[in-house]
C-alpha cells in the first residue's frame, strides 16, 4: 500500500532545489509578504585571521574629582524659578519668632558630635567621639599632674608617670565611693574614657562657683580643683537619684564629667524654674527641691509614670543626661518601669 500524498499547506510556497555547483549563485525569490532585499556581502576577515577583533583594554583614569556640569533641561522654555527667601527672613534663635510660644533653637546648649577643644595651665585637651563613645585626650607638659577616676585610663605615653593615692573615710566606705585617686604626671599623651556608654563634657572653674557632681559622673580634674564628698538631705538622697552623698567641687581649673547617654546643659536665669526627672542629673550649681510633678491624686501620679522630680530654680546651670542607669538596669532585668 503506497503512502498517501497530502497537498502542502496553503500558506507556504515550495521552490525547486538549485542545480549542483550553483548553490552560491542561486537567487531565491523573496517571500510574498516582504519586499526584495539587497544582496548582503560580509566584510573581509581581519588580517590576523580573527573575527571579530579582540577587545582592547584601557587603563582606568586617575583618581580625581571632576566637577560635573548641571543637567541640561529638556524643556524648550522652562518656567522661571522663584527667588529664594533671604537667609535672615526667619531666625529660629529668637523666641518671639517661634509659633505657639515654642522655645528658640538656642534654648538648649548641646555639643553632640562637636569636638570640645581647650587648654589649661600645663596642658591641652580634646573630647572626641561624642555622645556614646567619648574619649578625653590630654597633652600634659613636664611635671603637670591630672587627677582621674581609677580605672578610667585607656592609653598613655610611656613618659607619663602614674601614681595612686588612697584616702580612707567612713563616708566613702558607706556610700561605695572611690577612696583612691589616680594622678598622671606629664610629659606625654593620656587617653581617658568613662565606663558607661555616654558623653564627656568640661566645666571651667574660675574659683567663685561651687558645683555639685554625682559620684558616678566625676571623670578627671586639673591640679587646682578641689573635690570633697558632701551629704544631701534625706528626701534628696531618696528621690533625686544621686544618693546621700555627692561631690562638691570648687577651685580653679577644668573639671571633666561623664554621663550615661548624651549631655545637655541648661542655663537658668534669675528665678527661672526647670524640672528634671530623677536619675538624669549629672552636675548642677543651683538650688533644687523634690516635688510631685503629676497633678491629681495618688492614682494620677502612678499612672503618669514620673513620680517625684527635681525642680531647679535659677540662676545657675544644670548638666543632665539623656539616659537613666536605674531604668536601664531594670530594662535589662526584664522589670517593667512605670
UniProtKB/TrEMBL annotation:
Q: Where is the composition biased (Pro residues)?
A: 1-20, 41-79
Region (Disordered) residue spans: 1-107
Q: What UniProt keywords are attached to this protein's entry? A: Mitochondrion
Q: Name one Pfam family in it.
A: AIM24
* InterPro entries, sorted: AIM24, AIM24_sf, Trp_RNA-bd_attenuator-like_dom
Which is a Gene Ontology cellular component entry for this protein? mitochondrion
List locations, semicolon-separated.
Mitochondrion
> Has keyword Mitochondrion?
yes
Sequence similarity: Belongs to the AIM24 family.
**Protein name (record):** Altered inheritance of mitochondria protein 24, mitochondrial
Q: Which organism is it from?
A: Microthyrium microscopicum
